[in-house]
Write a structure and sequence with these properties.
4 helices
């Protein structure tokens, strides 16, 4: 357990807060100022947030000095797989658990659950696959 919860974990969470603030700000500016619509605004959140996350986690959290195209490829694959898994698991589970509630309540709860699952999956993916220590 010491290998999983340590100073690296704390730094990952700090980066996550920064990443969330940046991505969410971009999303709301795109939606409310530039009127891009829901899907483009939320996609910009993940695109910009993932770029911020990559550089902060590479150099601050995991201190990876490699100049590797492989890291970028692994990062993109990790983000994509984590997103599909997290939201693919969250939606049916939350919809089943909250079956007596409105669609809006279920969808919002599923998105919240998906975010939480994404953070967990993404942490392990980045730590042990993308920026793994040799």
């Amino acid at each position: 357990m010491k290998k999983v919860i340590d100073w690296v974990t704390i730094k990952f969470l700090i980066v996550g807060v920064i990443n969330t603030l940046v991505g969410t700000s971009v999303m709301f500016v795109c939606y409310n100022v530039f009127h891009t619509g829901y899907w483009i605004a939320s996609a910009m959140n993940y695109i910009i947030g993932s770029i911020v996350s990559f550089f902060l986690n590479k150099y601050f959290t995991f201190k990876s000095g490699k100049k590797s195209f492989g890291e970028i490829v692994r990062f993109v694959i990790n983000i994509t797989v984590c997103y599909i898994l997290a939201y693919g698991i969250a939606k049916p589970c939350v919809h089943y658990i909250l079956s007596g509630y409105s669609g809006a309540v279920r969808d919002n709860a599923a998105m919240l659950a998906g975010m939480c699952l994404f953070v967990a999956f993404n942490y392990f993916g980045q730590r042990f696959l993308v920026f793994r220590q040799e």
